[in-house]
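I'll show a typical protein example:
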Amino acid sequence: MNRFFLLFAVIGAAIFGTMQLSAQGSANGWQTYDAGEFIMAQKKGKTIVVDIYADWCPTCRAQAPILEELRKEKQSKDTLFVKVNFDDEKAFLRQHRIPRQSTILVFDGETEVVRSIAETNRARLRGKILGAL
C-alpha cells in the first residue's frame, strides 16, 4: 500500500510539474515553439529570438537569466521570443541545422541574422542579440 501511494505521489508530482512548466512558458512572455505560428510570424516580418534549450542543460540554465533580461527589455508586438525544446523538436533542429542545445537564433522575418552557440558571457550574448533587435 505504501509503495502504491509513493508511486502515485511521484507520478502526480511529475505531471503537476510539467503542467506548471508549460504554463510558465507562455505566461512569462516566451512562447513554446509551434511550427505554424513560427512560419506565420516569419512571413509577417517579425523579429524572432529563438532559444533552443534542454531542461537538463547547464549551459542553457546559465543563458536563461540573460535571455529573460533581454526579453523584458525588448518585448514588443513586432518581436517574438520562442523556446524550442532540443529533445522534442527534431524537425526544427534539422531544418535550421542546429548542432546542439544552448543555441540562440535571431530571425528578421525569414532570414537568420544571428546564431550563437553555448555563449554564456553576458556582454557577448547581449551584444549579439541586441545588435539584431
Summary: Residues 2 and 47 are 53 Å apart (CA to CA). The mean pLDDT is 83. The first helix runs from residue 2 to 27.
